[in-house]
TrEMBL record, chain A:
Residues 27-133 form the Aldehyde oxidase/xanthine dehydrogenase a/b hammerhead domain. SUPFAM superfamilies: CO dehydrogenase molybdoprotein N-domain-like, Molybdenum cofactor-binding domain. Keywords: 2Fe-2S, Iron, Iron-sulfur, Metal-binding, Oxidoreductase. It comes from Ornithinimicrobium cerasi. This is Xanthine dehydrogenase, molybdenum binding subunit apoprotein.
Automatic annotation (TrEMBL), chain B:
Residues 246-419 form the FAD-binding PCMH-type domain. PROSITE patterns: 2FE2S_FER_1 (PS00197), 2FE2S_FER_2 (PS51085), FAD_PCMH (PS51387). PANTHER family: XANTHINE DEHYDROGENASE SUBUNIT C-RELATED. The keyword Calcium does not apply. Coiled coil: none annotated. It comes from Ornithinimicrobium cerasi. Keywords: FAD, Flavoprotein, Iron, Metal-binding, Oxidoreductase. Residues 164-178 have a biased composition (Basic and acidic residues). InterPro entries: 2Fe-2S-bd, 2Fe-2S-bd_dom_sf, 2Fe-2S_ferredoxin-like_sf, 2Fe-2S_ferredoxin-type, 2Fe2S_fd_BS, Beta-grasp_dom_sf, CO_DH_flav_C, CO_DH_flav_C_dom_sf. This is Xanthine dehydrogenase small subunit.
Length: 821, 535
């Protein structure tokens, strides 16, 4: 057992602990960035002037009328920027653009004494535009060759040889929609100027250090001139990793120019129309199987919809390519990726960070091909699992294949899948208008940032003279329970009760140069840094205690606030040891640091071992589909998920359930629509409010949702044997989609392969089940690759997406009609 | 546009408002037990949410500003629904705590009222039972939606008739014999053993938890304790509406004393915006920047709040909230009983009125198709007196009705006897709290094996709600058989002029029209013979 992963006796980690702010949450006392506004004097409010065009040159900007509106104080424009006019780090996101690149793009910002004044002022700003041609859909981008960034390939073996070797080959396409984060708290910043001109910025950001850097470069000052604090976020999900920076910079600029605090809080419509979302992807694929259904080869091209600027599109794409095989061994692989540039919001990080999109490709392939291979989907999946010692397509060795097998077997057993499959078949045979589906899917998700430099973290731990402990670390709290875990880690490391430890808000002047709280890595990285700091302090205290107890230093033990020694019954309270240490002039604070060892990645060839380890999970979901409408309900979900040795089981179960439901939302309900017409609304987000963009609500919660943590899953490579949990569970929701596919297929004859759009809305499910019901199985489907499957004689290929184009176009013409309405 | 409309008119800017009458109590309300006046910065357009937050009460949050997410939910004290005495009937309940969306309601509309926020229910060192359960069970992650959940959950906690109940399928949670598509036999996964109705939380969104721990918290709640001040408050009289007049920022908010004053105001200012629950006006204020110069509040006018179920016609006052109608009818109109739980969320239904939903004349409002099928009529009242209009003649175009600008909707009348075979199909992406892409209401009489009478109301397939006249004709006189119904369903599929939008394609809408009749038949195959429904 490694020093990092070993737990002392009586650890505080591993206890089911409510969220450290739970009592503040439920009473409304927990403060979020915008809650600070009424506590701050003389605040100005910022409001954007947003482009109505998907793509246009700004030919004129007249602000006189706005300045004449009562209460308007100033209009911020490009001319006001003393530093670099860019909201990102790639020089492709002008903060005040001269060329607007999507509908909703902010041209300038109005500052007012009240939000109402700023809003009225923004309405009075006159902007001249010269419209330019725009690219809105992925298909348009491909046709126009509108791409941005690198076009990497992950490749192993000879994919053409693999496909030639395969007994069965299939090909197809899949288009999957993006997803809006819809954190309940929209982006918010509050900037103030300190007495010496330094900027203090309160911001709802997952990446305070980068917010700080970008504010500094916009203002033309050094990072030491800017402090960013994040109290907590009302949800992040990746949407506050890059997106807050520009808004923070606008607030800071306004504060510097007016000398007054500036609040910039997007309302929901602004947040929806201005900030990036999960990337939609298109995939074109060819897959080969041997006679027993084992994957022989996969060739695929993934095209992501990056929106107007690069943002995080390249690393999102890289992670998609590194997850396209999910949990399955594929001997010969070639997967190429590219990022389309379109006139939409700049798509960004979202829980899973490309992993879900990559993995959906193989899960869709297996779901579509299983009936054609004549193999039950669960059997097809299980048969293709990795074995230890096999390499991923990018060259990382698989070492924990057994984890996934155990999780799979546990779900199969405890969820009684065999019995329930028979019950589903019976139900389907006896109900005319309803069908059920029961599917089980695996998740294998790599943990670490692909970019090696991000795999480091810092912490600053203070022990005060009275024995109380204050922890600072570089991670941010967005609801995922990171702070709860860090308190538990600190209490465990120091051997004190949890109540003795407090946590201070995340600030860049306490811990510098932090990585984003992202990639599920928050607890791994910051936990190890907190532990390091605590152990430094404890090491010094052990010297003091050894003298008091009369034992050698290595024999001193700290637990539950009591310091003891081996071979003596004497004990000293923690507080006394601390008190003595102060008077002995022993340093009672320490900076902790951690960097992940053993990860490496060469992005030029897309090879290496980018992940410290993999997190695993298995979910079984049963759904019921109404044949009249395509409406469906999730009846039961059983999950076994691998979090290593849990740091905080209540927090981890919450992450698993929440991730699952959010994933189910992406795959079934959440339906981003853009105006793709040629009309004057072209490029407009049609689903720009909570009434048109629907999140899962109580009605999507299954009556039965059982989550178990995989046992005997100690992780050597991470703090106290735990594993990351933020992102992996999202992909457990593939089981919902596959269950829907199977329920649709059950409306048709045996062996029906269902091609299901994503999201699988009730309408999409209705058309899929209608197609299955019409039973035209043999007649459709594209040509098999190179004459391997005889139509009608066993497996049939799904072909190049014959169903989807027939089903989707109406929805697309919908948008044309809407704009004319 | 939401279906949760509550405005009876959406006129443009009106004439300059009169100055307020002198005298009277200065406008204000009681927040968490403390009286607070509405200051000079309050305008007729200031929402309860912004007002509370401006006072430093940060528990109520803005998540969407259109009544969809519930992060802004607060409790208000309202007159108890008649018969709402507590479960053992031991004590009379005069006041109920209802949860509403603070983001939608002008604060002037709560003049004289009592509001409780999450801060008022408990404090970190003295948690309210609802707060305790949520905190301990992992019901909060980011915590932003949590105070709203707390308020919505507290309202249900204090619902006087919430009583423990047996779960029908406690041991068989997938209830394999039941058909969730059929409301009559729906399993009760939506009520806790403590009688907690999960629909109380249908207007609250959480993006973090996946809801399971919130449900567990809700189902773990016991009855309020003996010294619970909020429970005790229910025994005393509710706050009464005030004769509010508030003028600021070039606009006025008026709550008339009585119907006569309301009618006179409308006669004088035909462009005034009539407000009841403000569930639609609030959206206009927040999302579309509407700043109407005169708001006239009618939701507490007694003349608009009749509820009668024992005469030849069922009378539903236009200013009754949908919650009041739901409880007041108690299932006596099965078609409405099927509709109302699907109408927006509990938070919205606690404010939204039937009159408002009809007044906006939205083609996707859910009430109209049902009232069309029920052959209801509308009573309008104005300076020229009252008139009654058959519902089928009400709608004249997109968001247009025969109602004159100076008329108010007084009530809806539903003739008896009610049709014996009814069904309501609402097609939407989400099961709770979504807007219909198509809604279809059927009211049929089947005698022997023949359809003797058919009324079909449609929403979402034209610029206004429609009667499906061709389908009615195709059904009447035909046998109630699968073949005949399939033929009529094809006629129904051709009714209206469905368009494609972000909610659904036109093709799907047409298919859903057709399917809705097939579904009705499948569920009522034995109508007319007295046998039960088939699945």
């Amino acid at each position: 057992m490694s020093a990092l992963s070993e737990r002392p006796a009586s650890p505080v980690v591993g206890r089911a602990q409510p969220h450290e702010s739970a009592a503040l949450h439920v009473t409304g006392h927990a403060l979020y960035t915008d809650d600070l506004t009424p506590r701050t004097k003389d605040v100005l409010h910022a409001w954007p002037v947003q482009s109505p065009h998907a793509h246009a040159l700004v030919t004129a900007l007249r602000t006189d009328a706005a300045l004449a509106v009562p209460g308007v104080v100033r209009v911020l424009t490009a001319e006001d920027v003393p530093g670099i006019n860019d909201a990102g780090v790639k020089d492709d996101e002008p903060l005040f653009p001269r060329e607007v690149c999507f509908v909703g793009h902010a041209v300038c910002w109005v500052l007012g004494e009240t939000q109402e004044a700023a809003r009225r002022g923004a309405a009075a700003v006159e902007v001249g535009y010269e419209p330019l041609p725009s690219v809105v859909t992925l298909a348009e981008a491909v046709a126009a060759e509108s791409f941005q960034g690198a076009q990497p390939t992950v490749e192993r073996g000879d994919v053409e040889a693999g496909l030639a070797r395969a007994a069965y080959t299939f090909h197809g396409e899949l288009e999957m929609a993006g997803q809006e984060h819809f954190y309940l708290e929209t982006n918010a910043s509050l900037a103030t100027v300190e007495d010496d001109g330094r900027i203090f910025l309160q911001c709802s950001t997952q990446h305070p250090s980068e917010t700080q850097e970008i504010v500094a470069h916009v203002l033309g000052v050094m990072s030491s001139d800017v402090t960013v604090q994040c109290l907590r976020m009302g949800g992040g999900f990746g949407g506050k990793e890059m997106q807050p920076h520009g808004y923070a910079a606008v607030a800071a600029l306004g504060a510097v120019l007016t000398g007054r605090p500036v609040r910039l809080r997007l309302n929901r419509t602004q947040d929806l129309t201005m900030t990036g979302k999960r990337h939609g992807f298109h995939a074109r694929w060819r897959a080969g199987f041997d006679g027993e259904g084992r994957l022989e080869a996969l060739e695929a091209t993934l095209t992501s919809d990056g929106g107007w600027s690069l943002d995080l599109s390249e690393p999102v794409l890289a992670r998609a390519l590194c997850h396209v095989e999910n949990a399955y061994w594929i001997p010969d692989v070639r997967v190429t990726g590219r990022v389309a540039r379109t006139n939409k919001t700049s798509q960004t990080a979202f829980r899973g960070f490309g992993g879900p999109q990559g993995m959906l490709v193989i899960e869709d392939i297996l779901g579509r091909c299983a009936p054609l291979l004549g193999i039950e989907p669960h059997e097809l999946r299980r048969r293709n699992f990795y074995q230890d010692g096999q390499l991923t397509p990018y060259g990382q060795v698989i070492t924990q294949a057994g984890h996934l097998e155990r999780a799979w077997d546990q779900v199969t057993r405890e969820a009684e899948l065999e019995r329930r499959r028979a019950a589903v078949a019976e139900f389907n045979a006896t109900h005319e208008h309803l069908r059920r589906g029961l599917a089980v899917t695996p998740v294998k998700f790599g943990i670490s940032f692909n970019l090696t430099a991000f795999n480091q973290a810092g912490a600053l731990v203070h022990v005060y003279k009275d024995g109380s402990v204050l922890v600072n670390h570089g991670g941010t709290e967005m609801g995922q329970g990171l702070h709860t875990k860090m308190l538990q880690v600190a209490a465990t490391s120091l051997g004190v009760p949890l109540e003795r430890v407090r946590l201070a808000p995340t600030r860049t002047d306490k811990v510098p140069n932090t990585s984003a709280t992202a990639a599920s890595s928050g607890a791994d990285l910051n936990g190890a840094a907190v532990k390091d700091a605590c152990e430094q302090i404890q090491g010094r205290l052990a010297q003091v205690a050894a003298q008091r107890l009369g034992v050698p230093v290595p024999d001193v033990r700290f637990a539950d606030g009591v310091v003891s020694g081996l071979g003596t019954t004497a004990t000293v309270p923690w507080e006394d040891v601390v008190h003595s240490a102060y008077f002995a002039r022993v340093q009672l604070f320490a900076a902790g640091y951690y960097r992940t060892e053993g990860v490496h990645w060469d992005s030029s060839v897309m090879r290496g071992s980018p992940f410290k380890y993999f997190a695993h999970g298995v979910a079984a979901t049963e759904v019921e589909v109404d044949g009249f409408t395509g409406a469906y309900r999730t009846l039961r979900v059983d999950i076994v998920h691998d979090v290593g040795d849990s740091l905080s089981p209540l927090v981890d179960v919450g992450q698993i359930e929440g991730g699952f439901v959010q994933g189910a939302g992406w795959l079934t309900l959440e339906d981003l629509r853009w105006d793709e017409s040629e009309g004057d609304q072209r490029g407009r987000l049609l689903t720009q409010s909570a009434s048109t963009y629907k999140l899962p609500s109580f009605s999507e919660m299954p009556p039965v949702l059982t989550v178990r943590l995989l046992e005997r899953a100690h992780e050597e490579g991470a703090v106290y044997g735990s594993k990351a949990v933020g992102e992996p569970p999202l992909m457990l929701a593939f089981s919902v989609r596959e269950a829907l596919r199977q329920a649709c297929a059950a409306f048709g004859p045996e062996g029906t392969s269902v091609d299901l759009p994503s999201p699988a809305t009730p309408e999409a499910v209705f058309w899929a089940l209608q197609e299955a019901r019409e039973g035209d199985v043999a007649g459709r489907g594209g040509a098999p690759v190179d004459g391997d499957v005889e139509p009608g004689a066993g497996p049939r290929p799904p072909g190049p997406d014959p169903g989807a184009p027939e089903r989707r176009p109406e929805s697309e013409t919908a948008l044309h009609e809407l704009s004319e309405a | 546009m939401t279906t949760t409309s509550d405005v009876a008119d959406r006129g443009g800017p009106g004439p300059t408002a009169r100055s307020a009458e002198a005298g009277g109590v200065p406008p204000g309300l009681t927040v968490n037990g403390t009286a607070a006046l509405l200051g000079a910065d309050v305008t007729p357009h200031t929402t309860v949410l912004d007002w509370l937050r401006g006072r430093g009460l940060t528990g109520a949050k803005e998540g969407c500003a259109e009544g969809e997410c519930g992060a802004c939910a607060v409790l208000v004290a309202r007159p108890a629904t008649p018969g709402a005495d507590d479960v053992d009937g031991a004590q009379h309940v005069a006041t109920e705590w209802l949860a509403v969306n603070a983001c939608l309601i002008p604060v002037a509309a709560l003049d004289g009222q009592e509001v409780v926020t999450a801060e008022g229910l408990g404090s970190p060192d003295r948690l309210h039972p609802v707060q305790r359960e949520l905190a301990d069970r992992g019901g909060s992650q980011c915590g932003y939606c949590t105070p709203g959940f707390v308020c919505a959950m507290a309202a249900e906690y204090y619902r006087p008739d919430r009583a423990p109940r047996e779960r029908d399928h406690a041991d068989d949670p997938t209830h394999e014999d039941a058909d969730p598509a059929e409301p009559a036999s729906a399993p009760d996964d939506e009520h806790g053993p403590n009688g907690f109705d999960l629909h109380a939380l249908s207007g609250n969104l959480c993006r973090c938890t996946g809801y399971r721990p919130i449900r567990d918290a809700a189902y773990a709640l016991g009855p309020p304790g003996p010294d619970d001040a909020f429970a005790e408050r229910r025994r005393c009289a509710p706050p009464v509406p005030r004769h509010t007049r508030l003028e600021a920022d070039g606009a006025r908010f008026v709550r008339p004393r009585d119907l006569a004053e309301a009618v006179a105001l409308l006669a004088e200012h035909p462009d005034a915006l009539v407000v009841a629950g403000s569930t639609d006006v609030g959206v206009e204020l927040n999302l579309r920047g509407a700043r109407p110069p005169l708001l006239v509040a009618v939701d507490r006018l007694p003349e608009l709040r009749a509820l009668a179920t024992d005469g030849e016609e069922i009378v539903l006052g236009a200013a009754l909230t949908l919650t009041e109608i739901e409880r007041g009818l108690g299932g006596r109109v099965p078609l409405l009983a099927e509709l109302l739980p699907q109408f927006a969320s509990r938070l919205i239904r606690n404010g939204a009125t039937l009159g408002g939903n009809l007044g906006t004349a939205s083609p996707i409002g859910d009430a109209a198709p049902v009232l069309l099928a029920l052959e209801a009529s509308l009573v309008l009242v104005g300076p020229r007196g009252e008139r009654t209009i058959a519902f089928a003649d009400c709608f004249t175009g997109y968001r247009e009705t025969v109602r004159d600008a100076d008329e108010l909707i007084r009530e809806v009348r539903i003739p008896r006897p009610l049709a014996r075979t009814t069904g309501f199909t609402k097609v939407a992406k989400r099961r709770f709290d979504d807007i219909s892409s198509v809604s279809v209401a059927f009211a049929l009489d089947v005698e022997g094996s023949t359809v003797t009478r058919a009324r079909v109301g449609l929403g979402g397939v034209a610029a206004m709600p429609l009667r499906a006249l061709a389908t009615e004709a195709a059904l009447e006189g035909m046998p109630w058989t699968r073949e005949a119904v399939a033929s009529a369903a094809r006629v129904l599929g051709g009714e209206g002029t469905p368009v494609s939008d972000h909610r659904a394609s036109g093709r799907y809408r047409r298919a859903m029209l057709e399917q809705s009749l097939l579904r009705l038949h499948a569920h009522h195959r034995d109508a007319g013979t007295g046998a039960g429904a088939a699945s």
